[in-house]
Write a structure and sequence with these properties.
- The chain is mainly α.
- The chain has four helices and no strands.
- The chain has helices at about 20-25, 25-35, 40-45, 55-75.
- Bound molecules: iron/sulfur cluster.
Length: about 80
């Protein structure tokens, strides 16, 4: 599986894993972390689709999602 048609690497396979396992797997998590932090790998840095995305709208959507998840899951459980 690839996250988009511009991406050259495979980040998992549904031939050997379930779709949720691939999408929630470490490779996709790593890519999402890179996209959110802006620490892009070369493939994403040179991606021709990047100018199509409104960064402000993306951030608003992302933070809205994170806030809804925070409310859905409740406060974090303290360790120790
Ligand atoms: S930046 Fe481009 S190559 Fe990277 S995941 Fe997004 S659309 Fe795909």
């Amino acid at each position: 599986m690839r996250p988009c048609c511009f991406f050259e690497e495979k980040l998992g396979s549904v031939a050997t894993h379930s779709l949720p396992d691939v999408v929630e797997g470490e490779e996709f998590r790593k890519l999402r972390r890179e996209l959110v932090t802006g620490e892009l790998r070369p493939n994403c840095r040179s991606c021709s689709a990047r100018p199509l995305i409104d960064r402000g709208a993306f951030e608003k959507k992302l933070f809205g999602y994170l806030e809804s998840e925070r409310q859905r899951l409740g406060p974090p459980i303290a360790k120790g």
